[in-house]
Every structure is written in structure tokens, then in C-alpha cells.
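stage 2 :: seqdesign
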């Protein structure tokens, strides 16, 4: 097998990071969603073609051509499944890229609110979960935790609860009251 689990994780990261980083340039392009829609459509068509070929072969309607058709449909289905995996990886890379961009702006005080930053953290953890699934054990066990953080919007919910500048909390309402009294006092 070669190497410790840490070396395998490092190698997997290196093999994943660079292609994902190269793909991140496509994230703002509408092509990604178009390709995803096309693959979903292809999946529906190949599913119908599989049923049709299986039916034709079961009654012997096409003979040898039916068997060739069945083989071709299986190859097409396999390519569609692989393509869906690539699109999923690309979508995760785009989530991470978008989140890092927002967080970079937030850290340099470039007009990104705490609420937007919290959403970006949720997006970052959700995207990272897809890549952690591909790592060897025990590192891949963290994928479920990261996915859950993104799914439940952990950082967004905590930001709403703990940020005194938000009016959704009692401390936020108190802060707003103090600020209003200061404004009216001048």
C-alpha cells in the first residue's frame, strides 16, 4: 500500500486540489449548469434506452443488433455516470471557490456583512464535505460532519443568534435601541 494514512491523505489532496483549482475558473460560467442539465437529460434517455434494449433482447426482436445496442447503451450509461461525478466535483469546487472569495472580501473589510460571511462558511464546509468523502479513512469520516454543518446552515444560524448587530436577537434589538437613542440625542 505504501505510506502512512497521512501520506495517502496528502497524496489524495494533491491529486484533487490542482484539478479542482483549474476547474474553479469555470464556476462563473453558465456552462456548468447547462452541462448538468444536459447530463440529467442524458441519464433519462439512457434509462429509457436500457429498458428498450432489454425488452427487445428479451423477445429476440433485434437479434445480434439488440445485443450490440444493449452494450452500447451500457457504455453510454457508464459515461453519463462518470460525467455526473465530475460535475458534482466541479460544483463542490465552485462552492468552495465562491465561499473563499466572499471570505477574502470579508476579512479585508470590503463591504461583506457578517451574515454573508456566515453563509459563505456554510457553503465552504458543504463543498469541502464532497472532497473529504474521497479521502482515505479516518479522514473521510469528517465528510459527514462537514456536510451536516453546511446542510443545517450552522454558521448562519449561529451568526443570527450571536451577532449583536442583528435585530433578530434580544441583544441586537437592545443594540439598535442604544444606537437610536444616541442618534436622537445629538
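stage 2 :: out
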Amino acid at each position: 500500500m505504501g505510506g502512512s494514512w497521512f501520506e495517502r491523505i496528502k497524496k489524495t489532496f494533491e491529486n484533487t486540489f490542482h484539478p479542482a483549482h483549474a476547474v474553479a475558473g469555470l464556476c462563473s460560467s453558465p456552462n456548468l449548469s447547462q452541462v448538468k442539465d444536459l447530463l440529467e437529460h442524458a441519464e433519462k434517455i439512457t434509462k429509457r434506452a436500457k429498458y428498450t434494449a432489454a425488452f427487445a433482447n428479451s423477445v429476440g426482436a433485434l437479434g445480434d443488433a439488440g445485443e450490440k445496442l444493449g452494450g452500447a447503451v451500457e457504455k453510454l450509461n457508464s459515461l453519463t455516470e462518470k460525467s455526473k461525478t465530475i460535475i458534482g466535483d466541479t460544483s463542490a469546487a465552485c462552492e468552495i471557490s465562491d465561499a473563499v472569495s466572499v471570505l477574502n472580501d470579508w476579512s479585508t473589510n470590503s463591504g461583506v456583512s457578517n451574515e454573508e460571511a456566515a453563509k459563505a462558511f456554510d457553503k465552504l464546509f458543504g463543498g469541502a464535505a464532497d472532497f473529504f468523502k474521497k479521502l482515505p479513512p479516518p479522514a473521510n469520516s469528517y465528510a459527514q460532519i462537514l456536510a451536516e454543518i453546511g446542510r443545517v446552515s450552522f454558521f448562519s444560524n449561529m451568526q443570527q443568534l450571536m451577532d449583536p448587530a442583528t435585530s433578530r436577537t434580544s441583544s441586537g434589538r437592545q443594540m439598535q435601541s442604544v444606537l437610536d437613542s444616541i442618534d436622537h440625542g445629538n
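stage 3 :: structure notes
- The CA atoms of residues 49 and 172 lie 58 Å apart.
- The helical segments are 5-23, 31-59, 64-107, 114-132, 142-151, 154-162, 170-185.
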